[in-house]
Write a structure and sequence with these properties.
Blueprint (H helix, E strand, L loop, with lengths): L24 E2 L2 H9 L8 E5 L7 H5 L4 E6 L2 H10 L6 E5 L12 E6 L5 H9 L6 E9 H8 L6 H9 E9 L4 E2 L6 E8 L10 H11 L7 H5 L5 H11 L12 H14 L9
Parallel strand pairs: 2-3, 2-5, 3-4, 5-6
Antiparallel strand pairs: 1-8, 6-9, 7-9
The chain binds S-adenosylmethionine.
The site of S-adenosylmethionine (SAM) has 23 residues, from β1 and β3.
């Protein structure tokens, strides 16, 4: 006979509804219109909406897009979305956590008021290898994050890598009062679009990140000094001249184009054993 195990009881299930974070519903008609109008959506476009809530964006998007895939984690929201979507055969409501769902294989755009707490995870998914078919996005982000993603000086290697492949543009600040309930901080609309010509090839993403991590170890250092660890003195003279990087210019002040030119020069002229490793 099996011994009775005091730990072998069924785990009690929480009775209350799970408390999903980031449920700040957009209620301001002008901001809704502005967000949707941030990217060009026409009847042949598939739009993925992340965190559809009660559908305040979903159905206005459906008026323009050929196909809408709306993801929502909250079961109650999903039930009401499915009822509303009965009148829209081109809208698919999917329940789940965006982080675990497969992205569309056909070219798609994203329009979303995302939960701020998982901003990096969402961007990692869209802009990384999983997002091969991702084209462009209009996103509401927390204002501070929006500023970090779009500012000129980039100190985060991953952000820098994304910006080699995508254009980031801050469109407008969205006051916290445009949401119910309001979040603790203001938000902003950011447009992201795949570059027609990436500044460095997609397949070099990991190498570029390793290069950026190495260079950004001391952002206030002169870039020429940091580059001495990679290029020989003769190569360095030539590469500074070719990229227009001043001897005194700090790593933090390099433009995106200079980052790309320095990295490509390293691939072209430096022996691989001298490349920074991830
Ligand atoms: C900021 S609200 C936006 C709701 C709606 N789109 C709007 O603008 O009114 C974010 C939504 O994302 C949902 N959500 C939170 N975490 C999620 C996740 N991991 N995957 C999918 N949806 C999520 C929340 O339940 C919430 O409805």
């Amino acid at each position: 006979m099996r011994k009775k195990n005091k730990y072998n009881k069924a785990t009690p299930q929480p009775k209350s509804k799970p408390n999903f974070t980031g449920q700040h519903l957009l209620h301001h008609p002008r901001t809704i219109k502005q967000l949707i109008g941030t990217i060009h959506v026409q009847p042949d476009v598939t739009v993925l909406e992340i965190g559809a809530g009660t559908g305040r964006l979903t159905f206005p998007i459906a008026e323009r897009a050929g196909k809408v895939i709306a993801i929502e984690i909250d079961e109650e929201f999903v039930k009401s979305l499915r009822i509303k979507a009965e009148a829209y055969p081109h809208v698919t409501i999917m329940q789940g956590d965006i982080r675990g769902l497969r992205l569309p294989s056909e070219p798609f755009c994203v329009i979303a008021n995302i939960p701020f707490s998982i901003t990096t995870a969402i961007l990692d998914k869209l802009l990384g290898v999983e997002g091969k078919s991702f084209q462009r996005a209009a996103l509401i982000l927390e204002r501070g994050a929006a500023r970090r993603f779009t500012q000129r000086a980039q100190l985060d290697p991953r952000l820098l890598m994304w910006r080699m492949h995508y254009l980031f543009e801050m469109k407008t600040i969205v006051p916290r009062t445009h949401f119910a309930p309001p979040p603790s901080v203001d938000a902003a609309i950011v447009r992201i679009a795949r570059r027609g010509h990436p500044l460095v090839p997609f397949k070099e993403g990991r190498r570029f990140t390793a290069f950026a991590v190495y260079m950004l170890h001391e952002p206030k250092l002169a870039a020429a000094h940091a580059l001495k660890g990679i290029f020989t003195p003769a190569q360095l003279r030539a590469v500074l001249q070719h990229t227009g990087v001043d001897r005194e210019q700090t790593v933090a002040s390099l433009s995106l184009e200079q980052w790309a030119a320095l990295f490509l020069a390293m691939l072209r002229h430096v022996a691989p054993y001298r490349w920074p490793r991830g």
